[in-house]
# Entry
Amino acid sequence: MVSPSTMAAVRKSGAIPNSEFLMTAEGIRKEFPGVVALDDVSFRLKRGSVHALMGENGAGKSTLMKILAGIYQPDRGRIQLKGADIRLDSPLDALENGIAMIHQELNLMAQMTVAENIWIRREPLTRFGFVDHAEMNRKTAALFDRLNIVLHPQTDVGELSVANRQMVEIAKAVSYESDVLIMDEPTSALTEREVEHLFRIIRDLRDQGIGIVYITHKMNELFEIADECSVFRDGRYIATHASSQVTRDDIIRMMVGREITQMFPKAEVPLGAVVLSVKNLTLNGVFKDVSFDVRAGEILGVAGLVGSGRSNVAETLFGVTPASSGTIAIDGKQLAIDSPTEAIRNRMAFLTEDRKETGCLLILDVLENMQIAVLQDKFVSRGFVEESKVSAACEEMCRKLRVKTPSLGERIENLSGGNQQKVLIGRWMLTDPRILILDEPTRGIDVGAKAEIHRLVSEMTRNGVAVIMISSEMPEVLGMSDRIMVMHEGRVTGFLDRSEATQIKVMDLASR
Ligand SMILES: Nc1ncnc2c1ncn2[C@@H]1O[C@H](COP(=O)(O)OP(=O)(O)OP(=O)(O)O)[C@@H](O)[C@H]1O
Ligand SMILES: [Mg+2]
# Structure
């Protein structure tokens, strides 16, 4: 069957769809002020295939895909859809030609329902011309049914977890019945079970002949889901290979142009006194009776499925949502932490999992974002902030984390996703915290920078910082934690020591 979108493409380009490739881009160049994001790049997507894009943060992956999805216009180059030249002037234009993209940064409207978000600007109407909510909810339910997604169409998106929002974005893209589906790090907020679910959806779509572009930093996903893989480095195209023909090390070498020796450079440091002690912490209806201690120099990993309450506990510790009952003590002294200001005053730092909503201040530049939490004693002399000291420290941090930016004055929204994350991590590291809470710290971060972040966290533990690290990435939890606390549905189901922890034990506790 020829889908309506295919017909639209044929009408628009006047070509008969017969090329081996669904979509191709040749000689693409794209410049932004101060950056050549893409330089003479090529890419070819086959029908019925999953094509992974790999490359370090800032390599140009998202930019290339935004060009294929009509969001950016290339400065130079040629794009073909089913063998015919095409010009995509807008995202709508791309959608009408059967190209849909799921963005790296989620784009849903929090104050609208799930159904309204999915059918926005193409709502079914009643014969009087009003939005037919009943029909819209029915269509949403049918779509979710087909994709096995268990969500209510009338829930406000603002109430959903990041993972569920990601599932809604995926459903929305699928609902356009496109021939080309571009996914930019779709699993960054999903845990293993949800990733499996997404992979089932992807395989299904692939078997229907859809071409899927899949951007990821997770090497295991590449081998599990992708048929082919193209690697980019610094805005240049490096190579394309069948994923069965390459190894993990081959890919890393192509990506970074150097060897990466140690993935989880955990420092073995002697543990000090208990810094943070949490007893029977409860947030009514969200989590209950959470108790744990974290010592100086210790990394407490927190594992669990999405929705297990891990991030909620972190938010309560940081005073975002004060607890209903239970106690928090720092250095043995019980404290009422009822606001983030109070938490920061007690030298806590919190890297949130959702960088767009609570993390970055998108209108500020790199420097401003970094220094925001730094305005403290070490940069203040006789009541004045020593600007030069602050920028020197920020500059140094950017260098350590290899933040790719034209300058510290660049607006953060212009940075690639992974580089935004690096700026946020840098910000908290600069505050010299005693308690560092990291929620999915290396989400969307490339392999090289990931190792660097792990090294920096390790270095901080050596200086006696107590770290709580929430992570859905099993190798990271197992590689970095001294102890792992596992949660399920708002309760702690167990603790595992570094020496005894295995993926199976963690998964077992996570589903209890
Ligand atoms: N709108 C923009 N304005 C200015 N510079 C931009 C803009 N979009 C991207 N860039 C720059 O272009 C380069 C490529 O960015 P891109 O987002 O394509 O990288 P990426 O490969 O997707 O990285 P990541 O893995 O971190 O998501 C980066 O240096 C980025 O800072
Ligand atoms: Mg990107």
Confidence is low (pLDDT under 50) at residues 6-17. Residues 192-207 form the longest helix (16 residues).
